[in-house]
Amino acid sequence: MTEADRPAPEAGIPTPEVGSTVPEADSNTVPEADSSTAPEAGSAATHAWGRIDETGHVFVRTSDGEREIGQWQAGTPEEGLAMYARRYDGLAAEVELLEKRLEGGSVSPDDAGKAVDKVRAQITDAQVLGDLDALAARLAALAPAIDKARQQRKAERAAKTAEADVAKNRIVAEAEKIAESSDWKNGADRLRELLEEWKALPRLSKSADDALWHRFSSARTTHTRRRKAHFGEVAVAREGAQKVKEKLIVEAVELSSSTEWGPTAGKYRDLMTQWKKAGSAPRNVEDKLWKKFRAAQDVFFQARDAANIALDAEYAVNADKKVEILTEAEKLLPITDPDAARKAWHDIADRWEEAGKVPRDRISELEGRIRKIETAIREAGEKKWQSTDPEKSARADDMIGKLQRSIDEVQAKLTKAEAAKDTKKAKDLKSDLDSKQAFLDMAKKAQADFS
């Protein structure tokens, strides 16, 4: 019977849900009929699966024969048959619902088995009119499906357990690796994430699960212990750094009023080196200490900058004098008379020194220009000296003599070879002669430079 075929429940008689107990007809609970509703004596009625006899007794037929299920005295026999038939429809609906839930997988195999036992017990003594054997057969037919679902659930649990075993071993391995690392922040965060992953996984067998949990818990404990020890050491180091930096601040304040610009700037560089070497102080005081240290430096360097600005203004006049000297000196370039240039340079150099210091931003420019002139004069003097070096001139004369004698010898040999018509030898001697002549020309040119 489908939902569409099932008759609608009449008012006052609810359709039972899955697992509920079908209400039974009890002679002690059925209200007695008054004179206006009681059936006439001797009236009876039949149903495809039972009957009501003349005395109001109700019977249901099963494969085992008839079974009395109650008495009807509240109306006509036909109304009684309809009421008991509706009770059957409710029981059938409960079986059908159980079939659908089992087919759809919305009920666990164990719950389905319990529901089948409960409904089967209801069918045994059911006070209904209908094919109870068919309902019992339908319940019996659910047994294979329940067994199949039970095996499927078992296989699924085994698969999930295997996955959980792999996942928990991975979690433990990662936790043990983290336990030996020194990545304190990321390590602690990751261990918390791994713990949440562990909680979401199903348990393994008690022995396996306990063993893995022991390793995981030990790894977390090890990391926590090492982390606390590390930050304890850091705290001690930070306190030591704080004391060192407080002393450096005192020194920096004492130096802030110094007007020895160069030496004091060097001392501040040394203090900065010590500051960095000291490491970090506790976070709540590090910034405050740095601001005090920096403020002391700023007092000194601001005073130095102000003094340098005043000096630069004073030195600007000196720069103008040196520009005039450079204009005069640069007229010596290019150097054509080294002796005259060197004589002029002595006067220029004296006046350059007398002009005094210049602003710092002009030093590189002006010094570069004067050094260029000085270099040109020195190189011109060196070149002239080299060209008049007697020793080099003598070596050049000796070289020329030797080359000339060698050339004369080769020439004599060449003349004989040509006379003998020895073409090959004559060719080799001619090549040798040309090479020696080239060297002789070069030597004579070098000798001319020394003269």
Specify Rg, calculated over alpha carbons. 60 Å
Taken as a percent bin, the fraction of beta residues is under 5%
| Structural classification | mainly alpha
Q: What summary fits the major beta sheet?
A: 4 strands, antiparallel
**SSE string:** EEEEHHHHHHHHHHH
Give a count of the beta strands, DSSP E runs of length 2 or more: 4
Tertiary shape: elongated
Total number of helices: 11
Mean pLDDT: 83
Termini distance? 139 Å
Helix content percent band: over 70%
Widest beta sheet: strand line-up = 1-2-3-4
Task: Offer a concise description of the structure.
Helices cover 73% and strands 4% of the residues. The protein is mainly alpha-helical and 451 residues long.
How would you characterize the overall build of this protein?
By secondary structure, the chain is mainly α. Among the domains are: about 45-130, no CATH class; about 160-235, no CATH class; about 310-385, no CATH class; about 390-450. The chain contains 11 helices and 4 strands. The protein has helices at about 75-105, 110-125, 130-180, 185-200, 205-255, 260-280, 285-330, 340-355, 360-385, 390-420, 425-450, and strands at about 45, 50, 55-60, 65-70. It has a 4-stranded antiparallel beta sheet, with helices on one face. A hairpin with a 2-residue loop joins strand 3 (about 55-60) and strand 4 (about 65-70). Helix 3 (about 130-180) runs antiparallel to helix 4. Residues about 1-40 have low confidence and may be disordered.
